[in-house]
Sequence to fold (118 residues):
Amino acid sequence: MTRAVELGARPASTLNLRVSVHHGAARQGTAWRVRLDPPGAPMSPDSLLDLVLSIEPVGTGSTRLIVDGRASRALVSSGAAAPGPVVRLAATALARSLLEQIATALEGQPAANRGVRR
Fold:
């Protein structure tokens, strides 16, 4: 699935969001690969942000969200190679904004549509 998303990170960005099921990455269950690319960019192994999201049962009805991934130095468009800490800050801001949008969308759905069993 590919769609344009507007992320509230600073500065605000409109990027292409690509989501696919990523089997075998999660300790228990399925993981989702989430990639962010500039609008109009072709599919490439070098996305601006490449995340793997997985949900792991913790025990007493709780779950843990595990986020793993990498960010391209091109994520920070300063024209020069950005230092690692700057790229990590920008990647964290984008990932947090994206996760907030995902959580908001999930909270608006009935539990049956989220795969939650009661």
Q: What stands out?
A: Residues 84-107 form the longest helix (24 residues). The chain has a mean pLDDT of 76. Residues 2-114 form one domain.
